[in-house]
Specification:
The complex is a heterodimer. By secondary structure, chain A is of the alpha/beta class. By secondary structure, chain B is α+β, with helices and mostly antiparallel strands. The longest helix of chain B is centred in the last third of the chain and has 15 residues, at about 130-145. In chain B, about 30% of the residues are buried.
Chain lengths: ~575, ~200
């Protein structure tokens, strides 16, 4: 038998070397975040994530942790951060109810392609499947609403799993990733070999190869078009392709309309920006969708709120669809030319091949429809002279003060549609809203996150009285962390969008839409946030100015017309050309 | 028009992936007629064979959504005409029935059955074939005396799969999948891997 003799000195040397590289799983998690350039974490501690929080105590100088008041608030804040900064939002939650509170935010982030890495604690690995205290099968609950999820049961996995998580969350079509870490893995000491970023997973292909034949085919269709029409979505913002997009439409003289997630990718006052698509979009873009000859969809997914009735959607047009996600091609609308790939790469390739052109007559059709819409609905909404305050005019006055430079975070409902329709935007990543999921309660926490994502910019949360009451506990976060955001409540004392539908389609049978509010100014005061309630037109401008000039958080509760409706409207199940002006 | 499609999926060997794939069907309320999953010939790569009855349009969308999953290497779909496929069925019958009735013996020969276990009290036969073939023997045995029956999921070979194996070996290398994984052009299914 061979005997190995180790000198006492060497043995201690080995031991100290080993001690140097042995770290806990929790520390490895935080090391990963530091290496990925994370600066803010939104989270809430609890039993199963305590080892990570314990390690976080020593990382406070590198990682800022914002203590939210509810995990849903945490994840929406993460989303707001990701949307305003273009970086990955990071969220911590504990096991069980902590993790299930993330569900709405995960679903929201998946459908709105928001990059997130959520880290949840989990019970000890040996307790999995035993109905242990605060044990919930988080992986299976979140499988349909995450781009990827993984349960870590051994600390050795942590560095490469987190590297994978960040890679998956931010590349290709971004999305939320959830990593569930059992408590034993958080505590376990292991040999840490440093952190290496992930840039390749063999089964994962973030973007499809660009196919030259489709680039040529798309350019040919655009060059032959008499009435080309561009519709664009968040793909431009996610792909950081705003410049490339502008060069494309300017060279071809192509009128362009946006989905609500594409909003702010092209400045509002650009002459080729013809407005908003969809159910409460502008008149021209909706009607002319069914008159264009070539429809060029860029980084958007033909949501049913955009297309209305599919069998009557742009049937006359040839369709070019640029998307990074092959599963979006032909999903809802059959494409003539599918341009797979990242629009940051594909747009310049197409731009190079298209003719420099203007389509003045065609563009004028948009302008004349816009005039028609202005006199039918916009004029009365933006410039009323009597009666109660209108939501539109509040936005209009806000535009005058911000000059279109603020980040606007909206909730869901009438105020959201009005804000998207009328807010002026000068720069990208400025409109943050829950589009695909339509999550009420999104705006307040998302605005908190948006401020951390873009600390130098003004952030205004525009919220209805219904949605505000869903997540108003986050006023506590604003108070404690001194988050400088402005809260603008458009208060119509109704669940306005549902009421509008009940009025139009259910014979005014107002079933449970009459919602009472607390005194929001008093409420804010309890959280040490100054505020004011107004209902008069004469107070509007001065109050908005006061709010926007105030240093620190401020709440303005604006009482608006109780039964105002958002028009135009494409009723559900109707074609976009059947858009109603009243 | 709805018809039978076989979806073949190559994946990483990962806990939870079965669920991730299954929910793509259940989300659209599509019933899975048959599903087989087993290791492929390449270490760490698994192969799913899933049979559903749907329209081609829906099947294309489902395949793209499957392929979109991070741990899925590739998904294909084929009609029955494009496949060679088999199912395995086991029939347990009392030995006395077989001994007494020559008819049964003849039937078993006719359906190419093979005895897997022969005991004093029962015999287990095995038949490999398509659904109709295994069904026919079942119909015949049932009135005579059947103790237990089980059928496997479908396994299928794609007729036009030239180069399949060698491409799959490339996955093993764990190299950047730039040219290897083509997750578009699912509709050009004739020339898998070499679009």
């Amino acid at each position: 038998m061979e005997t190995i003799v180790i000198s006492p000195q060497a043995a201690t040397e080995q031991k100290s070397e080993a001690e140097q590289v042995q770290i806990s799983g929790s520390k490895a998690v935080l090391e990963a975040l530091v290496n990925e350039g994370v600066d803010v974490i939104f989270g809430y501690p609890g039993g199963a994530i305590m080892p990570i929080y314990d390690a976080l105590y020593d990382y406070q100088s590198q990682l800022k942790h914002i203590l939210v008041r509810h995990e849903q608030g945490g994840i929406h804040a993460g989303q707001g951060y990701a949307r305003s900064s273009g970086k990955v939002g990071v969220v911590f939650a504990t096991s069980g109810p902590g993790a299930t509170n993330l569900v709405t935010g995960l679903a929201d982030a998946l459908i709105d392609s928001t990059p997130l890495v959520c880290i949840t604690g989990q019970v000890f690995a040996h307790l999995l499947g035993t109905d242990a205290f605060q044990e919930v099968d988080v992986i299976n609950i979140t499988t349909p609403i995450t781009k990827w999820n993984y349960q870590v049961t051994d600390a050795n996995e942590i560095p490469h799993v987190l590297a994978k998580a960040f890679h998956i969350a931010k590349t290709g079509r971004p999305g939320p990733v959830l990593i569930d870490i059992t408590k034993n893995a958080q505590i376990q000491k292991f040999d840490y070999k440093g952190y290496t970023k992930c840039n390749h997973i063999r089964s994962y292909r973030p973007k499809p190869n660009v196919r030259p034949e489709y680039i040529t085919a798309a350019a040919k269709l655009i060059n032959e078009a008499k009435k080309p029409f561009v519709i664009f979505g968040q793909g431009i913002i996610l792909g950081k392709a705003e410049k490339e997009f502008k060069a494309f439409i300017e060279k071809g003289g192509l009128p362009a309309a946006w989905t609500i997630l594409g909003l702010s990718a092209l400045e509002t006052e650009h002459p080729l920006n013809v407005g908003m698509l969809g159910m409460h979009g502008n008149y021209g873009p909706n009607v002319l969708t069914n008159e264009c000859d070539v429809l060029i969809a860029v980084g958007m997914r033909f949501d049913d709120r955009v297309t209305g009735r599919l069998d009557k959607y742009a049937k006359q047009a040839k369709i070019i669809h640029l998307d990074i996600d092959p599963a979006e091609i032909d999903k809802n609308v059959k494409t003539t030319v599918p341009v797979w790939g990242d629009c940051k790469e594909t747009l310049p390739l197409i731009t190079a091949l298209i003719d420099e052109k203007q389509h003045p007559n065609w563009l004028n059709e948009f302008y004349s429809h816009s005039e028609k819409e202005f006199s039918a609905c916009i004029q009365a909404e933006l410039n009323p002279v009597s009666g109660e305050l209108k939501m539109g005019e509040v936005i209009q006055v806000m535009n005058e003060i911000t000059g279109g430079n603020a980040i606007i975070v909206t909730d869901v409902g009438q105020h959201q549609m009005v804000a998207c329709r009328y807010t002026k935007f000068n720069q990208s990543k400025s409109n943050i809203t829950s589009g695909g999921a339509g999550t009420m309660g999104f705006a307040l926490p998302a605005a908190i996150g948006a401020k951390y994502g873009a600390p130098d910019r003004e952030v205004i949360a525009i919220i209805g009285d219904g949605g505000f009451q869903m997540t108003l506990q986050e006023l506590g976060t604003i108070m404690q962390s001194h988050v400088d955001i402005k809260i603008l409540i458009l208060n119509n004392r109704f669940l306005g969008m549902v009421r509008q539908w009940q009025q139009l389609f259910h014979d005014k049978r107002y079933s449970f839409v009459d919602i009472e509010s607390p005194d929001y100014v008093q409420l804010a005061k309890a959280y040490k946030i100054p505020g004011k309630q107004i209902s008069l037109r004469s107070e509007l401008k001065s109050s908005l100015t006061e709010m926007l000039h105030h240093k620190g958080a401020y709440l303005l509760d604006v009482m608006v017309e109780k039964e105002d409706n958002v028009f135009p409207m494409v009723p559900a199940g109707s074609s976009v050309s059947e858009i109603r002006l009243k | 028009m709805k018809k039978e499609f076989t979806i073949t999926v190559y994946t990483e060997n990962q806990v939870g992936l079965l669920n991730r794939i299954a929910i793509i069907f259940s989300r659209r309320k599509i019933n899975i007629d048959s599903m087989n999953t087993s290791p492929s010939e390449v270490e760490s790569v698994h192969r799913f064979t899933i049979v559903i009855t749907e329209t081609e349009d829906v099947v294309i969308k489902i395949c793209r959504q499957i392929e979109k999953q991070v741990e899925v290497l590739k998904a294909y779909f084929n009609t029955n005409e494009e496949l060679v496929w088999q199912e395995l069925a086991l029939y347990k019958v009392p030995t006395e029935v077989i001994a007494e009735k020559v008819l049964v013996e003849r039937l078993l020969r006719q359906y190419g059955a093979r005895a897997v276990v022969i005991r004093k009290d029962y015999i287990v036969f095995e038949v490999t074939g398509q659904r109709e073939e295994t069904d026919k023997l079942l119909e015949v045995l049932e009135p005579i005396g059947l103790i237990e029956f089980v059928r496997s999921a479908r396994v299928a070979i794609i007729k036009a799969s030239d180069g399949f194996h060698s491409k799959l070996k490339e996955f093993e290398a764990d190299q950047p999948g730039d040219q290897v994984v083509e997750n578009e052009f699912l509709n050009h299914k004739g020339e898998v891997f070499t679009m």
